């Protein structure tokens, strides 16, 4: 599941909306919405996010947060380390090889390290 998928699922749960109800209201298939929530689809287009914002009547801050989460939700990330240090290339490759083995606590630690100061 992607960060965007988790947020969509939480929004639906908080409002008591089913996947099928939301999909019908947005004019997409339930299969698409499910795949988006589960990280099997790429980042949705801005127009889709606007539909979601309207559907849930999100305020400006929540809508901006949804857009930010969408940007961080591409399930197929490619890292180009050409021109970077050998350590950057090593880090990218080691992370790619082991990311599936990291638990949430370790991921939280790594994410905190990468936060803007």
What does this structure look like?
This protein has 117 residues and is an all-alpha fold. Helices cover 65% and strands 0% of the residues. The protein has helices at residues 3-15, 19-26, 30-37, 46-56, 60-71, 86-98, 104-114.
Search tags:
117 residues, mainly alpha, 65% helix
Shape: elongated
Q: What level of helicity do the residues show? A: 55-70%
Distance between the termini: 27 Å
The quaternary organization reads as single chain
- Characterize the biggest β-sheet: none
Beta content: under 5%
Specify the structural class: mainly alpha
Low-confidence residue ranges: none
Work out the number of β strands. Answer: 0
- Total of helices: 7
Mean pLDDT equals 92
> What is Rg?
17 Å
Helix/strand order:
HHHHHHH
Indicate the topology.
Elements: H1 3-15, H2 19-26, H3 30-37, H4 46-56, H5 60-71, H6 86-98, H7 104-114
């Amino acid at each position: 599941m992607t960060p965007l998928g988790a947020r969509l699922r939480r929004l639906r749960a908080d409002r008591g909306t089913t996947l099928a109800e939301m999909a019908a209201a947005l004019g997409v298939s339930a299969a698409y919405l499910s795949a988006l929530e589960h990280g099997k689809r790429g980042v949705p287009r801005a127009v889709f996010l606007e539909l979601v914002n309207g559907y849930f009547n999100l305020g400006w801050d929540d809508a901006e947060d949804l857009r930010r989460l969408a940007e961080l939700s591409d399930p197929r990330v490619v890292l180009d380390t050409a021109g970077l240090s050998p350590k950057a290339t090593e880090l990218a490759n080691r992370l790619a090889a082991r990311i599936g083995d990291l638990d949430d606590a370790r991921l939280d630690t790594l994410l905190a390290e990468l936060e803007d100061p």
